[in-house]
């Protein structure tokens, strides 16, 4: 165990570019939003000051409208596409024009509590304000039905980039004007683990739509070519609002307390729009057609993390989890085996990502399902013990997939699965 802990620390140190951490050398050479949030949890285990700095650097690129971008391009790197000149957001530092899962407030709460939860903590206060602005951005631009859920306008926003959940909406994206470009990702890892060329063309077409609006988020939300309500981000934002509320109360920020309480009530009720009775799980749903993906993904189980679901709904989710153990040797696959386009090696169509497993396990533990939480935790540590600190892992063989020496996998070892039974 000590050997792996030392390795995990070494990975974070090696991927540290000074105030921010790259997800992995080569494949992802910049700062990614939700990667940094999870990475901060890892740093917090051995260098709290550095943990805060990770988030402060991320938030320093927050847009004036409140959006925290999904990538911050702190320096040029020819090894990545689409880089800053493709996004062309005109920001300093250069950033992408979309966001990523809103897990920041939950991480800030964890860091602040590890420091003793002092309401006077100035670092918490600054980040709290940034999170309030970011959550307001979500409510203003990404809640078209005003039901407290999160609509995404690019599949990259979900962080679960090419989950089969997006396939139907992506198939309607017109790629005729995309032009030629050189992908870089397949130069770093096996193409069999990455999205296909046709998928990539669609990702680029959606990006180009945003760029052509001058990154006008109102127009993108109203008319964009890809508009899906993501179960993952909806659950994460609800959870993040609950964590933000704890800090708002500690700060006696009464207006924000009221605002958050209202948002939480709205989301709790709104979540039923994602419940698929036939499948017995929460599933992402197309904002344009209203069609449910009908797919059980690891994000479906974030219901426990968000604290939603009736007793019956939660029981059905646990049944689904039980069923998944009959095909997955390790929990928690990103897509249930047997689902459309399941592939135990390909990006978000089967492999396990420990950051989602961590949130799901945390939610299960809080809901009193300690055995399930522990099963996910021990499976996660077995994956690292077997294969090292990969980006993701096959639920069938436990082999690593995607990039090696991945920062957030190292962080999850330090903050969660390598620690023993604590959450
Ligand atoms: C990529 O380039 O694959 C990233 O996941 C986009 O955020």
Report on this structure.
It is a single chain. The protein contains 16 helices and ten strands. By secondary structure, it is mostly helical. Helix 1 packs across helix 16, helix 5 (104-114) packs parallel to helix 10 and helix 15 packs across helix 16 (407-417). The longest helix has 20 residues, at 122-141. The two termini are 17 Å apart. Bound molecules: (2R)-2,3-dihydroxypropanoic acid.
Quickly list its features.
about 45% helix; mainly alpha; binds (2R)-2,3-dihydroxypropanoic acid; about 425 residues
Overall strand count: 10
The SS-based structural class is mainly alpha
The overall pLDDT average reads: 96
Give the overall shape, derived from the CA principal axes.
Answer: globular
**Biggest sheet record:** 3 strands, antiparallel
Which small molecules are bound? (2R)-2,3-dihydroxypropanoic acid
Beta content comes to: under 5%
- Along the chain, the helix and strand elements come as HEHHEHEHHEHHHEHHEEEHHHHEEH
Query: In terms of per-residue confidence, which ranges show pLDDT below 50 for 5 or more consecutive residues?
Result: none
Strand arrangement in the largest pleated sheet: 1-2-3
- From the N-terminal CA to the C-terminal CA, the straight-line distance is 17 Å
Number of helices: 16
Helix content estimate: 40-55%
Radius of gyration: 20 Å
């Amino acid at each position: 165990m000590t050997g792996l802990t030392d390795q995990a620390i070494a990975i974070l140190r090696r991927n540290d570019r000074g105030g921010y951490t790259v997800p992995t050398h080569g494949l992802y050479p910049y700062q990614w939003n939700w990667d940094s949030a999870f990475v901060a949890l890892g740093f917090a285990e051995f260098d709290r000051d550095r943990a805060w700095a990770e988030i402060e650097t991320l938030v320093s690129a927050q847009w004036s409208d409140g959006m925290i971008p999904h990538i911050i391009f702190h320096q040029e790197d020819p090894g990545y596409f689409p880089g800053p000149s493709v996004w062309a957001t005109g920001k300093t530092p250069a950033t992408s024009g979309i966001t990523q899962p809103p897990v920041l407030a939950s991480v800030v709460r964890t860091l602040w509590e590890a420091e003793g939860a002092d309401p006077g903590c100035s670092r918490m206060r600054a980040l709290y304000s940034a999170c309030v602005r970011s959550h307001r951005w979500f409510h203003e631009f990404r809640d078209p039905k005003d039901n407290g859920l999160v609509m995404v306008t690019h599949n990259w926003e979900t962080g679960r980039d090419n989950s089969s959940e997006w396939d139907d909406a992506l198939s309607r994206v017109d790629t005729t004007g995309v032009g030629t470009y050189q992908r870089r990702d397949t130069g770093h890892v096996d193409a069999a683990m990455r999205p296909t060329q046709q998928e990539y063309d669609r990702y680029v077409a959606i990006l180009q739509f945003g760029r052509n609006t001058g990154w006008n988020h109102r127009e993108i939300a109203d008319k964009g070519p890809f508009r899906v309500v993501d179960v993952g981000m909806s659950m994460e934002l609800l959870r993040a609002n609950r964590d933000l509320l704890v800090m708002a109360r500690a700060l006696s920020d009464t207006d924000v307390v009221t605002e958050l309480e209202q948002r939480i009530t709205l989301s709790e009720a709104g979540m039923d729009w994602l419940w698929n009775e036939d499948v017995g799980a929460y599933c992402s749903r197309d904002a344009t057609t209203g069609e449910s993906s009908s797919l059980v993904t690891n994000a479906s189980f974030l219901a426990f993390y968000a604290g939603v679901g009736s007793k019956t709904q939660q029981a059905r989710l646990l049944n689904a989890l039980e069923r998944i153990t009959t095909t997955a040797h390790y929990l928690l696959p990103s897509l249930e085996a047997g689902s459309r386009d399941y592939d135990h090696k390909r990006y978000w169509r089967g492999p396990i990502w420990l950051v989602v497993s961590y949130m799901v396990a945390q939610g299960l533990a809080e809901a009193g399902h300690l055995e399930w939480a522990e099963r996910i935790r021990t499976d996660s540590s077995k994956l690292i013990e077997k294969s090292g600190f990969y980006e993701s892992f096959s639920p069938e063989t436990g082999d690593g997939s995607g990039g090696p020496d991945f920062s957030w996998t190292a962080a999850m070892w330090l903050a969660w699965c390598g620690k023993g039974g604590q959450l």
